[in-house]
Amino acid sequence: CDLVSPLSSLDHPVSDRELLPRLMALAKRHGLRPLLINRLRQLDPAANDLSEETIGITAHNLRATAALIEIVAAFANANIRVMGYKGPALAVLLHRNVALREFLDLDLLVSETDVPTAATILEGLGYARDLRLTEAQQRDYLSNASTFTFEHRSTRLPIELHWQLSNRYTGVRFHFDDLWARKVQVDLGSGNTIPTFSPMDQLLVLALHGTRHFWESMCWLVDIAYLLDRHPLDFDRVFRESARLHLTGMVILALQLAHSCLGLNVPAYPAFDRAVIRASGWSTKANDFLCPAA
User: Fold this and answer.
1) Residue 282 predicted with pLDDT over 50
2) Of 100, 117, 241, 264, whose CA is between 20 and 30 Å from 217?
C-alpha cells in the first residue's frame, strides 16, 4: 500500500527483487501498475525491467484519450454537454498525467434529454450499442437505468454513456445541472480540454462507485487518497451534499477504508448512525480483503 500512496514514506529501493513479480501481480489485480512502476523508478532510476508494462498501458491510455477528444468534439458540434467520468479525465485531475491511472473504457455523462442524440453520434463514429430498444422500452430504460454500453467496431474500445451514476433502485440520483454548475476543466493535451466533476463531486461519485462494487479494487481508495492530497475539500460542505444525496454512509465508509489501508488523515464525521455502515463488521472485512498485511 505504501508504494502507491501519495503519503508514502518509503525513501529506498525495494531490496528484495524477488518480491517484484508479486508486487506487479497485486498491482495488476488492483489497477495500480502505473503508480507502482512510477514509484519504483523514483526509488531506483536504474529499474528498466518494467518498461514493457509501462509501454502497453501508456499506449492504450493515449489511444483512448485520442478517442475521447474526438467524441467530445463531435458532442460539442451538436451542442451536447458532456463530462468525463473516470478514465483520462480522472487520471489528469489526480496525477496530471493520463498514463498514471489504468482504465479499460471511457465513461461519459450527459443529460438524460441528450442521450438519444449522443447515442446517434457515437454510432456515427463507429461505436455499436449493446441494446436495441423500441421507443417505449427506451423511455422506461432511461427512467430506471443509468448507462448504455458501446464498443468500437474496429478498435473494440468500450464506451459507457451515462445519464445517471446509479440505477433508480439505489435511491441515489444526481442532477446533471448541479454537477455541470460545479464542473472543472482538465487538460487532455494539445489544448484539448474536457469538463469533469468538481473535487467534491469526485469524492461522492468515487464513494458511490466503490460501495456499489464492494470495494473490490484498491485503486478506488488510492483515487480518493490522491484526490484529497491534491484537492483539499470543505468537509462541512461535503457532508451536507452527501446527506442530501443519501450518500453519507458511503462517504464515511470510503474514508474509513482509505485511512485503514493508506493512512489517509480523515476529518471528523458528522453525527451518523454507524450501524448503517457496520463499522465493526462489513468495513473491517473489506479492509482485511484489501489490506491483508495491515
Assistant:
1) no
2) 241
